[in-house]
Write a structure and sequence with these properties.
Helix content is about 45%, strand content about 10%. The protein is mainly alpha-helical. The protein has two domains: about 45 residues, no CATH class; about 100 residues, no CATH class.
Length: about 150
């Protein structure tokens, strides 16, 4: 009998993410040996962090990103689950989900449909095509939210 043919599999792991720009390499302390030299580690590339935004616009971007994550049933920045499952699946929305939905609704009301779309595409999806309009939108919403 001949050898089994090896199946080619699509790679969506760290190497592919580094190639398509959704992850970046950096150095961090080794959690198992903090006194040892730093180790190489990949982390997600967050476009708005690389945009050198003024502080109020940066805070608005963080709030928008967290609101979108909470409303989609994801975990917060510290890795804590909003619930053990998506809120629509277990007991209804949390206060954080309601605040996030309110924030996203205000985003659409203040910036209009096209402006809100540009901001969300850059902040949540990391799309560079709408960066100029997103900068303007983040400044406007930061002023509206009094950040």
């Amino acid at each position: 009998m001949g050898k089994a043919k090896r199946l080619d599999r699509t790679d969506y792991g760290p190497r592919q993410r580094l190639q398509n720009g959704t992850a970046v390499l950096g150095y961090r302390p080794d959690p198992e040996a903090p006194q040892a030299p730093a180790i190489r580690a990949a982390r997600a590339f967050i476009r708005y962090e690389a945009m050198a935004l003024p502080e109020p616009s940066y805070q608005a971007a963080r709030l928008i990103e967290e609101a979108a994550a909470v409303c989609s049933g994801a975990k917060d920045r510290e890795g804590n689950s909003v619930r053990s499952a998506a809120f629509w699946d277990r007991g209804g929305p949390t206060l954080a989900a309601l605040d996030g939905a309110r924030g996203l609704r205000e985003l659409g009301q203040v910036l209009g449909r096209h402006g809100a779309y540009a901001v969300v595409r850059v902040v949540v999806d990391g799309d560079p095509q709408h960066e100029t309009e997103a900068r303007k939108g983040l400044a406007v919403i930061a002023e509206f939210w009094e950040l």
